Amino acid sequence: MSAATTRSRTPDRLCAEAVDLARGAAEEAAAPGVVGEHAGLVSEGDRVVTHFFECKEPGYRGWRWAVTVARASRAKIVTLDETVLLPGPDALLAPEWVPWSERLRPGDLGPGDLLPTDQEDLRLEPGYTAEEEPPPTSVVSHEMEELAEAEDAEVTPGAPAVQRTTPSRGSIAAVAEELGMRRARVLSRYGLHVAADRWEEAYGPRTPMAQAAPATCMTCGFLNPIGGSLGQAFGVCANEFSPADGRVVSLAYGCGGHSEAAVMPKPPQVAPPVIDETKVDAFPLRPARDSGSVPEPTDEETAELGHS
User: Fold this and answer.
1) Burial (0-12, 13-18, 19+ Cβ within 10 Å), 48
2) Contact 222/272 with Cβ under 8 angstroms?
3) Which three-class secondary structure state does DSSP give residue 41?
4) Beta strands 63-70; 248-250: pairing state
5) Measured between alpha carbons, how far is 149 from 154 in angstroms, rounded to an integer?
6) Which of 37, 133, 152, 249 is the most exposed, having the fewest neighbouring CB atoms within 10 Å of its CB?
7) CB-CB contact of 203 with 249 (8 Å)
8) What's the pLDDT tens digit per position in 56-70?
9) Closest Cα partner for 18 from 68, 75, 64?
């Protein structure tokens, strides 16, 4: 270690003793009564020392007033350099600023709020490009041009000589716009994957509800199919008693409201009684003497009991 480095790390004696000068500068910069006790000092270089004072300002817990003093070479007078409020090691700091586009979360958009979409949003791609238009030598292009010329001749006043050479209605973009199929941007492949991952996480086969379901949504009558490539893996639930009612669910999702889970077996029906009216059973008015379970006593037994 060089002598210059050792000398710079050792606080200058006169600068270190200038605590009153540093306190007066801190009290002048701060409000009255917010400058606390002296909290130490640090050497900033040759004959440059920074004094720290506690800050009692509400809301600035752990902050310190830092007053830097210095003196010229071979001078005995210490002068003030700067005064600033700095956070300490345990200071209460504001969270790091994050742009609003990164702070936004699903569900934050309320009525009347506008969410501008970035022009370079990876989730979107142009809905129409000139690459989709057939070349001029294509048969489709000639047929469309003849059809457009005939339509323009009907709606545009004047002789054929004054008609436009290149009809605007003959382009692919014009036809798509007339049919209501033209959009400035559509979902890109990345946008489709992001949406699918989000829906799969919320209403997919790995959720606790799907794990306990009797069957998947693929066999449920309440599933409403959707079009496009996402329709191969997702649909919309239309069961008002399901937790996913009105939500896009995976075909592998399931819940207890499955349309076939409540099908109960029919209770067995008792057969009607069968009455045979062709056979007559005899029913005596008086039972026979020997039909009981107790045998009838003889005359000898009754004589012994004194009965005649």
Assistant:
1) middle
2) no
3) strand
4) unpaired
5) 9
6) 37
7) yes
8) 888 888 899 999 999
9) 68
What the block records as the tokens of 236 is 């919309």
Contact yes or no for 69/42 (Cβ under 8 A): no
Beta carbons of 49 and 16 less than 8 angstroms apart: yes
Q: Tell whether the model's pLDDT for residue 4 goes beyond 70.
A: no
Spatial distance between the Cα atoms of 66 and 23, rounded to a whole number of angstroms = 10
- Give residues with Cβ within 8 angstroms of 126, minimum separation 6: 184, 185, 186
Which pLDDT score is estimated for 247? 93
The pLDDT of residue 151 is 55
Q: Region 218-244: what's the mean pLDDT?
A: 90
Residue 250 has a CB neighbour count (10 Å cut-off) of 24
Q: How far apart are CA 126 and CA 175, in angstroms?
A: 17
Distance CA 4, CA 247 (A): 71
Residue 84, token pair as written in the block? 């600033």
* Residues in CB range of 78: below 8 A, 6 or more apart: 14, 15, 18, 21, 69, 70, 71
pLDDT tens by residue, 119-144? 777 877 777 665 556 566 665 556 55
How many whole angstroms separate alpha carbon 297 and alpha carbon 291?
14
CA dist., res. 21 & res. 38, Å (int): 12
Q: What is the pLDDT of residues 143-173, one digit of tens each?
A: 556 665 665 555 555 555 555 554 454 455 5
3-class DSSP assignment, residue 63: strand
Q: Are strands 124-126 and 79-87 parallel, antiparallel or unpaired?
A: unpaired
**Distance from C-alpha of 186 to C-alpha of 40, rounded to nearest angstrom:** 62
